[in-house]
Amino acid sequence: MSLVYLGALLISLAGIVLLDVRHRLFLGRDPVRALIVLAIGVAFFLLWDAAGIALGIFFRADGPFSTGILLAPELPLEEPVFLLFLCELSMVLCCGAQRVLARRKGRG
User: Fold this and answer.
1) Residue 76: phi, psi to the nearest 5?
2) In the chain, what are the domain boundaries?
3) How confident is the model at residue 34, as a pLDDT?
C-alpha cells in the first residue's frame, strides 16, 4: 500500500484550487455554483466508470503507487479524487481561456 499517487493527486488538486481562488476563475468566482457543477461532473464520471466496470471494460490495475483501497469492485479510492481533479482542472482551463479571449477581444 502506497499513498504516492493519491498524495500527488491531492497536491495537484490543491495547486489548481489555489490558482482558481487566487484568480477568481471558477470556485473563486461563485463557490456554491462551482461546487454543484463539480459534484455533477464527478457523479457523471463515476456513473460512467460504474457502467464501464459492469460491462467489463474498465479494470483496476494493481500498481506500486496506489493505495489498494477499493470503494467498490474495480473502483480504487484514487478514482473519485482523480475525477474531482479532472473536473476542477477542466473548469479552470475553460474559465481562464474565456477570460483571456475576453481581454483580447476588448483590446482589438
Assistant:
1) -75, 160
2) 4-107
3) 97
Among the ranges given (45-49, 69-73, 104-108), the one the predictor scored with the smallest mean pLDDT: 104-108
pLDDT tens-digit series, residues 86-96: 999 999 999 99
Locate 3 and state its grid cell: 499513498
Distance of CA 44 to the CA centre of its chain: 12
| Residue 107, pLDDT above cutoff 70 | yes
- Give the C-alpha separation, 21 to 27, whole Å: 6
Longest dimension (CA), the chain: 55
Crossing angle of helices 78-107/4-23, nearest 10°?
Answer: 30
Around Cβ 96, how many Cβ atoms within 10 Å?
Answer: 15
Would you say 20 and 93 are in contact if contact means Cβ atoms under 8 Å apart?
Answer: no
